[in-house]
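Exam prep: given the inputs below (a chain plus adenosine-5'-triphosphate), describe the expected output before reading on.
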Amino acid sequence: MDVTFDNITYTVSTGKREKKTVLNGVSGRFQSGELTAIMGPSGAGKSSLLNILTGYTTHGVKGTLAFGSSGSTNRKLCSYILQEDYLQPLFTVHEIMLMACDLKVSSDSLNRSEKLRLVDKILDTLHLSYCKQTRCGSLSGGQRKRLSIALELIDNPPILFLDEPTTGLDSSSSLYTIKLLQGLAREGRTIVCTIHQPSATVYEMFDHVYVLAEGHCVYQGSALNTVPYLRSVGLHCPAYHNAADYLLEVTNKEYGNFTKALAKAATDPSWRLAPLVDRLGGGGGGGGVPAALPPCPPAYDSNHNDAVYQGHRKEVAVVVPLVGPVDQLPGKMADQSQRRPSEFAKLLILMKRSNIQLYRDWTVTHLKLFVHIVCAIVIGLLFGDSGINATKSISNVASFMVHILYLWYTTVMPGVLKYPYEMNILKKESFNRWYKIRTYFVASMLTSLPVQIFFAIVYATIVYAMTYQPCELERYLMFTAVLVLNTIVADGFGLFLGTFLNEINGTFIGAIMTCFMFVFCGFLIMFSHMSDAMRGISYLSSHRYSFEALVLTAYDDSRSDLVCPKDEMYCHYVKANTIMRELGVVSGNYLFNVVTLVVHFVAIKVVGFWTLKRKLKMG
Ligand SMILES: Nc1ncnc2c1ncn2[C@@H]1O[C@H](COP(=O)(O)OP(=O)(O)OP(=O)(O)O)[C@@H](O)[C@H]1O
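Solution:
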């Protein structure tokens, strides 16, 4: 399936009224069965072009794009492998492959054993079988790259785009990766990747090279035609110089500004016929033979004695044949739409994945549970019998604030730190149509909420008992319900901050907003002492409702008198409603506060979903 694009122009705004044209009407065709490299100096527009072709960027783009002869622009035909390999670090290679297979291929299309066979075959092909049981967090750069490719091969896309697949890899891993891509292209796929400074060996593996400079296409043709092409505009590649390096030096204007001349020459379609006779007579006259290519020597010949290279020649020999021709894998599933599982099935798979992740990440489960228990005991010991002792009612009310803040911080901050990384995985997976964002959102909520609720219940139970709160089941349940609601609102707040800001800003803004919510809860400064405007703001603070509800839990509903110690002459707060009156808390408002917390929870989740979608859209 060829990728054809015509007159693509991409404009971005760089200031209030300033615009910059990143791509100036570039055209080209990337053919199926070919491995294409998009090259050019930094800032030439390579990533921009790739993003446009994949549909990652749509805003500010003009021109036409078509996949295949029917002129389709259906993005379902392509997969995009981003430069960074964002993988779930706690899963093994085999687990992550199987989960991807479950998300991409329905059980009606392939049963369990067929899926296992498919996964094994792809892992074999990409030489990952030996690290099948290795967790993704422990893979090397080359293995991670190959796994990223393997994950996208599961549904056998006819078009594969890769952003800098060799960046960060050593020369032998780069060569190996490109050889793999070449093998995948030979099976009928269209493989397009951006690449920086390839070695001569890697460069010559590309069937087609598309070079950009200053937003113009300055070469499109066979890698082997580079030298005669440059010579045709008067640029002579020195002997024993890598043609790719020379091409980049030219586009970087090291020999003068040839951009216009090259852009004109690049419109000649015959350079893609590989390899052409040197038109200026440099290489003799054998029509279409490699002998026409000197003076740049071929990077590899049979006398090449580089040990690493020789080793590679042997290694790459075993990777062919690859996964399987594009129209045959898996053979019994031709119609892509029938292969996909339902969103509900995907929801269950994502929930399973999140649960395993939660269980394996001991810092967010085991450690957090341990810390909650220890902190609850310490806070319980600190506030002692404040729940029943009439001389300690102020301390008891203060302990409510401590509970609210403790559960708030310990829930918000993990979200702030977790989501920015999680977003990268989500971006990659949702863009390649593994699942819809809303499916991920619901799965993530359904798995994280029970854990958060459990932690809040553990904490609430310990502090309730240790601070001598009334020994009444109803009040205990009301107390726990408020802390649970406070925790799940915090969970939503963490999602909002984590999807809206980066880790540093999220931590900073999260801490400041929490402090303000704390100040507006009516304890540090009474509502009656606030101006009308400030009191209005206080209605936005969820701490206000949590705090009021906890005070009502402890002191409302005809609570019996508190205990005044024998050695005290006078206990001001012996009557339970005294403290409520002084704090300005209105009796009978428990349900209102709880309902308001539920509204806060729903609102923050809706906002969190919006910020999540917005962030993913922005790229
Ligand atoms: N959204 C944007 N806003 C402003 N400028 C942009 C935007 N997108 C791209 N550019 C500019 O367009 C030019 C091309 O960017 P692009 O990332 O496509 O280059 P590149 O060839 O991939 O570079 P590199 O090899 O360094 O990654 C750069 O100057 C970049 O600053």
